[in-house]
Amino acid sequence: MGYAPFDVEHVLAALTLEEKAALTSGRDFWHAKGVERVGVPAVMLTDGPHGLRKQQTGADHLGLFDSVPATCFPTAAALGSTWDVELVRRVGEALGRETRAHDVAVLLGPGVNIKRTPLCGRNFEYVSEDPVVAGEIGAALVDGIQSQGVGTSLKHYAANNQETDRMRVSAEVDERTLREIYLPAFERVVTRAQPWTVMCAYNKLNGTFVSEHHWLLTEVLRDEWGFQGVVVSDWGAVHDRVAALVAGLDLQMPAAGPRPDEAVVAAVRSGALDESVLDTAVRRVLHLVARAQPARADADAAAREAVDVDAHHALAREAAAAGAVLLKNDTVDGAPVLPLDGGDGLLVVGEFARTPRYQGAGSSQVVPTRLDDALTALRAATGTDLPFEPGFTISGGPTGDDDALRAAAVEAARTARTVVVFLGLPGPDESEGYDRPRLGLPDNQVATLDAVAAVNPRVVVVLANGAAVSLPWRDRAAAVLETWLGGQAGGSAVADLLLGTVAPSGRLAESIPLRIEDTPAFGNFPGEAGVVRYGEGVLVGYRWYDTRGIDVAYPFGHGLTYTTFRYDDVRAHVSGEGPDVRVEVSVTVTNTGRRAGAEVVQVYVRDPEASVLRPTRELKAFAKVTLAAGEQRTVTCTLDARDLSYWHPGLRRWVVEGGTFVVEVGASSRDVHGSAAVEVVGEPLWGELTAWSTLAEWTAHPVGGPLIGAVLASGDAPPIDETMAAMLAQTPARVFADFGLSPLTPEQLDVLVEKANA
To answer: What is the pTM for the complete model shown?
Structure first.
């Protein structure tokens, strides 16, 4: 059938009960059902977050193979490391064009789950350990994709931070931690970009499957954040369709046979499910189908031809370069090792140089339109037939003897001027469906690096991996370039960076720890007996390392380039108070080097007087600025009340606690170049008093304090020294009244409770 628009309310009124139930489930692996009788076509939802993965014919049982060629852009780990929302939006626009050209209504991405541990097998699909970076990059992708008339699916909502037992495990997370760490990225994307769909996660949250979690799917997502679209399940996440509908899940994917539809029909007819609940879900699905029709009308041969695959490849190359992070660049022989001075005396070592690792495994695997490898790109850029030694074997590469390959690399390195060694995680180490076995690189690769470094001081390491790896060998390399999984043009991007055609501008969106034992979730990951406890609370990523003073290999936000920057005149001006407070932060940044470069200005907030545990510092804003040599620019960011707030567990809302805040501006969480202290007028933080509130809580309450003070002063009481007073301050008023040591009786206390809360 065609792509004619239709009136949602008219169609809804014309549907039978059976047709309504059917519209809340998939037709097959990738399509939602349509109802041809009333002019509702089936629409396609397909992967993935960094490139279209549309199967050409049918669908295998996991939907992983036989995809159409599409541009494989850098994965989210690399896009997050760009800290460049405008560039990411352009990547989104390209993804949207390819999605539309292939008659796909919804592209399943982006993923903005927080990187709780570097061992999560799916971290390459996620942006950052910080919710501000994840939210800003995620919103830019959604904006870009949806600007082309197709939808996105923000995933995986929520607390899906591991692959081990992902379909059953219960993430046990307190509300403050959820609100401050694991929900804000989703909130930012929803409130700023309104994705067409949000995908619920497989796992349970505090004992309830997310697909059946009314608080998460309705109270928070819709009632608080104003989400207007469809909540779709992750593929296979629904266990009880009726309970899921009641919770706020609209569309079960993929097809699951007739039983779930029959269960919905039976529940409506028995009165167990109000038909209005089903109507609400169907109405949302119909709106999704209707809004997809204009773009689908363009999805013909002419539209496919309009996709400029060369331009998209060039954009992928730009994004890969922008997301690479120069971790280290030592001076050897009087000058930094990078950028390289052409190909003279250059030796390339490492199988990854010719067999690139450019994307992760699992449901996001893209069939690229072309694929650049770094060895070919370096040879083309230098105009020389650079010598190459594989150095070691990798999964998916040529077979060989590691000892012999290592020996050949060492002999070649003895006479080379500079050796570029390509290292990385093997493909099977990082995938959807299971977590990484270890933090470090394979032993055969490290052994080759050690042997090469022993005979040549000018060693440059280029890394390919989807998440942080430990770097105990970093002192044996003069330079280290982290490229993540750079997509189909990553090889050319590496050549651009090594040779200085492009200056590195990426910054770490995740900390690189020294050891797995140092990481926040160690001891609480991946859980046991079907439960994983988020015992680290709000101290995730750099919040953990910085607050606890734990050494790291490289801190969050770190990244070098081929020039230097100076920060001057950090200023902060406060206006308003309480929920209306604003802080305008400004800093002057100067490029003090000899060539153009980009700096990521990072604004952190600390609350040294907080009455609850708060991290030493938290990122609240950032700006990426490109400056010519000698150029100076003032960067301004405005913080609002939310940026100063914490989630109050008792009041169950965001609160601004008055007092001194310190605004820090710098180039990483541990490279602060300037700060300014500001005085903020907060808001009342007292809640409801009960008989079990402590004496300290009663005394601090503006109403309850005078009331209980008057009673205590009304009669004789034994003298209380300083130690006893401190102990009694933490005593519940009910217990104190029962002691009989003062005029306060249990009966009087009941009266005070009523008066204090009147």
So the answer is: 0.95
